[in-house]
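Input (structure):
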């Protein structure tokens, strides 16, 4: 029915659910699985998720699609990841356990801190380096909040004991059994810490937000070999060959390949993205 060596698994960890789809070489979906994610709202304007649930639900979806096709992991040629962007997870380098719930992109708890940075005149510099406005939406102020509000977190971070990642990083860390702490450029560019002109983490931005560089994942291209899954997860090491934030992935998926082409996505939010070509606008 299908050539198993050409099957590709797509993992889609969105804002409200985890999903996995297995495609054949022609791009036809053969199996899909989806599971809802628990949302937590501990205070007005706060939005959190359980990072360990994120991983478990995503793994269950992947294993479920394989079971539907009566396949083991060795039946996959590769897998790729797309994810809710900006959502922030900080975990222990030693144990692999999160030190706080994932702070979701919608969360507004750091609005006052961002306003202080704005009043201090930092917004033009931040915008010039990142292309983004200074807003709680993005990851940097969320990381700072965790370091400042979880007991002992800043000391552990300064000692090199904590890691930060967006959801793609968290999934790759777990898929590789803790061997891969990476993110792709599309997710890195949504943190307020990434210089889009030289495609590197920016020391000046890290200093503004008070985040140790040792916490940050290695930045890799969105397409290409990122790592391999730990054999124990799928029964065989499978190449992880792609990662992209959900809105950039949708822009590519809807074939916006030429400058000026634009897409709208209507999901948990409404997102308009345009291909501006090779020159930052």
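Output (sequence):
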């Amino acid at each position: 029915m299908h050539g198993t060596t050409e099957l590709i698994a797509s993992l889609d960890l969105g804002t409200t659910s985890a999903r996995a789809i297995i495609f054949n070489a022609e791009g036809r979906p053969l199996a899909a699985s989806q599971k809802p994610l628990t949302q937590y709202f501990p205070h007005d304007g706060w939005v959190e998720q359980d990072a360990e649930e994120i991983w478990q639900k995503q793994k269950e979806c992947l294993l479920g699609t394989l079971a539907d096709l009566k396949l083991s992991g060795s039946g996959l040629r590769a897998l790729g990841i797309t994810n809710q962007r900006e959502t922030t997870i900080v975990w222990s380098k030693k144990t692999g356990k999160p030190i706080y719930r994932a702070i979701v992109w919608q969360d507004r708890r750091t609005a006052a801190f961002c306003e202080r940075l704005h009043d201090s005149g930092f917004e033009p510099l931040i915008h010039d380096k990142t292309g983004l406005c200074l807003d709680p939406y993005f990851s940097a102020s969320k990381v700072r909040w965790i370091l400042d509000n979880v007991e002992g977190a800043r000391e552990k971070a300064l000692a090199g004991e904590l890691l930060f990642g967006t959801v793609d990083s968290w999934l790759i860390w777990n898929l590789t059994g803790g061997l891969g702490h990476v993110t792709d450029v599309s997710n890195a560019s949504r943190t307020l810490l990434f210089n889009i002109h030289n495609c590197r983490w920016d020391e000046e931005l890290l200093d503004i937000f008070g985040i140790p560089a040792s916490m940050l994942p290695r930045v890799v291209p969105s397409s290409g070999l990122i790592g391999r899954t730990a054999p124990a997860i799928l029964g065989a090491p499978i190449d992880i060959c792609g990662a992209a934030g959900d809105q950039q992935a949708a822009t590519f998926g809807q074939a916006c390949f030429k400058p000026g082409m634009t897409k709208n996505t209507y999901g948990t939010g409404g997102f308009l993205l345009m291909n501006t070509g090779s020159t930052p606008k």
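Notes: The longest strand covers residues 29-36. Residues 10 and 226 are 14 Å apart (CA to CA).
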